[in-house]
């Protein structure tokens, strides 16, 4: 049994969480002297992470997320004093691993939040994320889970800080998003920390990245200006990519660059690399155009989906004893 205020009528809890595309870390060096990182990203409807917890389930945890799920179980036992031996967990779907779509944060938060609700707890999501070891660099995944939409976090002033939510906007639903996942994988979280040591401090790039976000990207989303948003986002991608060029072998990673160029040639706008990649994305005002791009991309051996922004964040569903 779970203890800690468990609601006896609830037999199962299902949490469905969006993936995210990460548009960039604005200051990986701490150039400003008082704050480091600050990140911008967007919740997307697909691919989704869906986790179900309860007693009357056949447990099913895919091997590629076993470590993350068991880490959540251990932390929930230690922090919330939950007895989880009789609880079963099923991971029904999850975003591809280590490709830049935020799969680790979503699988951990979805599992932890489902267990919390089964136990009758209503945790603050940023505090839950902190307890799970999230937010060491970016808070985008946490706030996409909590709220969806376009989110900008505050970065960190001290190592003990958790990034705060600075801004959250609904994203236009008529701007269709093509997400391409090429063969291969990006760095793990451990590898990411090592790569940060290979970034070269470029104050002029940090200052310009902040300017582009505050003067072009955010206002254009508020105003629904597709041309301004996509050209501003491409400018941001090049600026941030230069900061990480020593670590990833160029403005874009070696795996991502061919697909970035392909999406541009096929007429998508706002094309960029999500986080370390290799996932890349682009935008179109026409769903038919976006779908035609995907057909061509898949002929070249990459996975491709057409999706839209997720302006809701995670959804939670309950199966009760009387259902």
Describe it:
It is built from 10 helices and 10 strands. It has a single domain, classed as Ribosomal Protein S5, domain 2, CATH 3.30.230. Helix content is 37%, strand content 24%. Helix 1 crosses helix 2 (103-118) and helix 6 packs antiparallel against helix 7 (226-243). The mean pLDDT is 92. A hairpin with a 6-residue loop joins strand 7 and strand 8 (280-284). The strands form 2 sheets. Strands 1, 2, 3, 4, 5 and 10 form a 6-stranded antiparallel β-sheet that branches. Strands 7-8-6-9 form a 4-stranded antiparallel β-sheet. By secondary structure, it is of the alpha+beta class.
SS content category: alpha+beta
Give the number of DSSP strands.
10
Tell me the number of helical segments per DSSP (H or I, 4 or more residues long).
10
- What characterizes the major β-sheet? 6 strands, antiparallel
How helix-rich are the residues, as a percent range?
Answer: 25-40%
> In CATH, what is the class?
Alpha Beta
Order of helices and strands: EEHEHHHEEEHHHHHEEHEE
Low-confidence stretches: none
Q: Approximately how much beta-strand content do the residues carry?
A: 15-25%
- What is the molecular shape? globular
CATH fold category name: Ribosomal Protein S5, domain 2
CATH architecture: 2-Layer Sandwich
Question: What number of structural domains do the residues give?
Answer: 1
Question: Distance N terminus to C terminus?
Answer: 20 Å
Arithmetic mean pLDDT: 92
Gyration radius, in Å = 20 Å
């Amino acid at each position: 049994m779970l203890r800690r205020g468990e609601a006896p009528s609830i037999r199962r809890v299902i949490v469905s969480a969006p993936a995210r595309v990460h548009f960039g870390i604005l200051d990986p060096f701490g150039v400003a002297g008082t704050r480091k990182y600050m990140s911008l990203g967007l919740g997307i409807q697909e691919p989704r992470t869906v986790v179900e917890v309860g007693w009357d389930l056949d447990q099913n945890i895919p091997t590629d997320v076993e470590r993350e799920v068991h880490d959540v179980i251990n932390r929930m036992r230690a922090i919330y004093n939950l007895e989880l031996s009789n609880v079963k967990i099923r991971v029904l779907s999850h975003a591809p691993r280590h490709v830049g779509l935020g799969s680790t944060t979503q699988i951990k938060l979805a599992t932890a939040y489902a267990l919390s609700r089964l136990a009758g707890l209503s945790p603050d999501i940023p505090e839950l994320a902190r307890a799970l070891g999230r937010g060491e660099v970016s808070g985008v995944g946490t706030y996409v889970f909590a709220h969806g939409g376009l989110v900008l976090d505050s970065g960190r002033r001290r190592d003990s800080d958790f990034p705060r939510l600075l801004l959250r906007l609904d994203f236009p639903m008529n701007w269709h998003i093509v997400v391409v996942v090429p063969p291969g994988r990006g760095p793990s979280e451990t590898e990411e920390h090592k790569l940060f040591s290979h970034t070269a401090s470029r104050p002029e790039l940090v200052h310009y990245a902040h300017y582009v976000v505050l003067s072009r990207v955010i206002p254009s989303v508020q105003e629904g200006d597709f041309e301004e948003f996509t050209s501003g986002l491409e400018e941001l991608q090049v600026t941030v990519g230069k900061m990480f060029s020593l670590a990833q072998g160029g403005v874009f990673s070696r795996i991502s660059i061919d697909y970035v160029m392909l999406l541009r040639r096929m007429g998508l706008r706002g094309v960029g690399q999500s986080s370390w990649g290799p996932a890349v994305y682009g935008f179109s005002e026409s769903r038919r155009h976006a779908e035609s791009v995907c057909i061509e991309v898949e002929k070249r051996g990459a996975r491709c989906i057409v999706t839209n922004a997720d302006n809701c964040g995670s959804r939670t569903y309950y199966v009760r004893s009387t259902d």
